[in-house]
Amino acid sequence: MRTTYDGATVRLYHLGDDGGVTTLLYGPLSEALRVADQQPADMQDGLFIATDNDVVAYLDLIEE
């Protein structure tokens, strides 16, 4: 993910096995990370965070 900051506006969404997309949050990165952390472990695998110029899988982001 390119450099960003805690207050950057992002989209947190879940990409389902069926290809369906569910937006969980539009808001600051810090809030998106908090919401993502609260999701069940089996759902976290399908979570993605999109900034205005990049998309990263939630689990990839927290492993860095």
From TrEMBL:
<protein>
    <submittedName>
        <fullName>Uncharacterized protein</fullName>
    </submittedName>
</protein>
